[in-house]
Amino acid sequence: xxxxxxxxxxxxxxxxxxxxxxxxxxxxxxxxxxxxxxxxxxxxxxxxxxxxxxxxxxxxxxxxxxxxxxxxxxxxxxxxxxxxxxxxxxxxxxxxxxxxxxxxxxxxxxxxxxxxxxxxxxxxxxxxxxxxxxxxxxxxxxxxxxxxxxxxxxxxxxxxxxxxxxxxxxxxxxxxxxxxxxxxxxxxxxxxxxxxxxxxxxxxxxxxxxxxxxxxxxxxxxxxxxxxxxxxxxxxxxxxxxxxxxxxxxxxxxxxxxxxxxxxxxxxxxxxxxxxxxxxxxxxxxxxxxxxxxxxxxxxxxxxxxxxxxxxxxxxxxxxxxxxxxxxxxxxxxxxxxxxxxxxxxxxxxxxxxxxxxxxxxxxxxxxxxxxxxxxxxxxxxxxxxxxxxxxxxxxxxxxxxxxxxxxxxxxxxxxxxxxxxxxxxxxxxxxxxxxxxxxxxxxxxxxxxxxxx
Length: 454
Ligand SMILES: Cc1cc2nc3c(=O)[nH]c(=O)nc-3n(C[C@H](O)[C@H](O)[C@H](O)COP(=O)(O)O)c2cc1C
Description:
The protein is α/β, with parallel strands linked by helices and 454 residues long. Helix content is 39%, strand content 12%.
């Protein structure tokens, strides 16, 4: 396949899958909440399909009422364990630069990359006001504001990179037993970083990573996030914008990377999709409809209390939004992160809700109508692709050939079953079309993703 552009495929490793409701299917298991073997199997499945990596987001809040999201395994512990049962698969480690410290993270990354032989990537997320209120868990640590979170993310990434790549020369090990000198004099360096957010002396007390440059992945919706990506990242986990706007966003981002003097082909744009796959299109649609019909009445008040930043726990979903929600009281950044409207520069939550009611779902809309709007918008950012293997391969091929994306992050709606079905049915179809690898062509994740060293 040399010379031809090929897809990158990542698989999300969430214990009970991505769909909030699909765990209620009779064939689904919720045991992954408690039983790590479910996501260890996800890693095995990903490697069986010769996928690029497995990944899970960063979640530092507490959400005991969040159905299948109540528990989130620690990513590094998971990856350390899963590396031992795989040989080529990569591991994308999501880390929140607003809460975590770069010295600890550099230690974790360097340790993991040595243990797994160069199969690590770092996904930097920045979210402060996230589900489950992480500030409530990390309150005494200095937490940045919306205005300062990107400055902190920039410092964070700079410090991580300097610790990883500047602490030790490659030939640090002298091992002079007769002379009693283990480490070559002058082969280590303090990084002596002093910034607004971090003071780090160094050097790192873990050997340098196996990879020349651990790929940095980034997310976000704002202009700031795009600037950060062009300066620091090799991969963007992007929202999905549809074909025509997606092509435009893809081209603009690649141009931005090129303007930084970098090779745009080495920068990969990878949105997420949830896939609903079955042997026939009809079966897949039936399953998708069955899952949608499972949406929980009792979940709505919790969803909206979180989304709007006001307590709606005693409100019924059939009530009119404007009867139960005081628009003035809505949190400033409410709804936007859920619907993606932040991307269109709507900053005020009350104004955004007013606009959604006026232009999308009507002034008489109920909470349930608003819920469906939010769900639809989430599907727009991370589409639900429903069909048989051919239909899903068609969707992937079209978006890939149109240069909307360089790969996708696959979110199985539930376990067990869908991830294996993807590997058994869709991967061979992609190979037949010549757009996915038949063998692992590199031993490091940087090699598989084909990313640069910025
Ligand atoms: C596709 C995507 C995935 C994200 N994943 C996470 C995540 O796993 N954990 C997290 O704390 N924030 C996550 N975020 C939130 C971003 O880190 C960021 O805080 C948010 O988009 C707001 O930043 P912005 O103002 O640049 O858009 C994600 C955002 C996007 C668009």
